[in-house]
Input
Amino acid sequence: MPPTDNLTARQQWILRHIQDRGFATIEAMAEEIGVSAQTVRRELIALERQNYLIRFHGGAGLRRDLFRIGYAQKLSTGLEGKQRIEVVPVSETGA
Output
C-alpha cells in the first residue's frame, strides 16, 4: 500500500475504518463522521485512484479483499491459533 502521509485527515480516517473492518458502507461512514454520502463517495474515488482501496456498490473494501481463498486453504490457515481457542460452554459464561 502506498504511504498515507499525503492523505487528508478524513481520507486517513476512512482508510483506517476500512482496514479495521475489511469493508465499510458509504452511509455508515458518512453518519459516523458527520458528512454527506457524496463527500464520502468523493473521498473513496480519490483513494481508489491512488490504489488504497476498491469501491463497490454502496461502499469500499481493501484491494487485497479482491482475492478470496478457498475453503481448504481457510481450514489450514492459522491452524495453531484456531487450536488454541478454548470453547467455553454457555452455562459457564453466566449468559
About this structure: The radius of gyration is 18 Å. Residues 9-21 form the longest helix (13 residues).
